[in-house]
């Protein structure tokens, strides 16, 4: 009988992965105070889908090193990663997923790993998000249903900013809580697959979050009643206030202001894609109209070119389209200002109620992300 052919062999990279896992288990205890609970919930073998929350970078390493298997991770393949991440991914290997696309080839590889009784590692949130903003995606539920595979949830705590603290010799505490197995997804009678997968994926995320320490910042957004305004002023060279022509009005200013207060998204443009957008991350420094127009043009080129789903995956297609419209409108305004010798002052204003301070905050200066690790 001919041997079945798979799109990916499992296990693979055994020597390299074993070496990397061993190195992590030696180095990480020097950098972090690691607490792991629930090891008794590890099954002896696959097939198995291991899932967890993903507020930073450390969880990926913990999943690979501190579970007892050769985990085949599904990872982001839609944008270039930072250099150190590229090196590690190249050594360990992963199944790349282009988020926002239909990933038939990648999903078939994951199916083939599970068919060989392998272990697949996935972060259902699909990326690193701001505190309290993560959302579930249904790929895990589909994969579990397709292969009749159980799911092992893991909740990670203390990982936000942990690597930065570790490199400052602060040895932060991080936790890894392993939950009980979730049975394979099974579409109930009377429900569509889409509705079931959506509900099931949310259940998976609720289970994961229940394993994260309740005081972890990745769970607890300190913000309530958030709203945004965009204030734009034009001045001549004598710094006299000028009226902006009506044709350059921004149609959805609150959406654009919100975008400028999304440091993780802006970080992807400037650091991962290496396009000149730092001026848009630091609007309070009053960049020139030329810098603003160039940054906006660069972002739009990316969104209209190789990465059309970069925003829609993160904020939804409707909001993504409104952001693109706003970026186009702001570029037109910046070009007008540049042509007429005007100075633009752009202030995205964020209003919110801070729970820990019990008061409303007015934030104009944008948060700036040095590193997402």
Q: Could you give a short description of this structure?
A:
This protein has 373 residues and is α/β, with parallel strands linked by helices. The protein is 39% helix and 18% strand. The protein has two domains: 14-210, Glycerol-3-phosphate (1)-acyltransferase (3-Layer(aba) Sandwich); 223-363, no CATH class.
**Distance N to C terminus:** 49 Å
Overall geometry comes to elongated
Which CATH architecture of the largest domain would you pick? Answer: 3-Layer(aba) Sandwich
Strand content: 15-25%
Secondary-structure-derived class: alpha/beta
CATH topology-level fold name of the largest domain: Glycerol-3-phosphate (1)-acyltransferase
- List segments where confidence is low: pLDDT < 50 over at least 5 consecutive residues: 128-134
Count of the separate structural domains: 2
Highest-level CATH class of the largest domain:
Alpha Beta
Helix content: 25-40%
Largest sheet: 7 strands, mixed
State the total count of DSSP E strands. 11
Strand line-up across the major sheet: 1-7-6-2-5-3-4
- The CATH homologous superfamily name of the largest domain equals Glycerol-3-phosphate (1)-acyltransferase
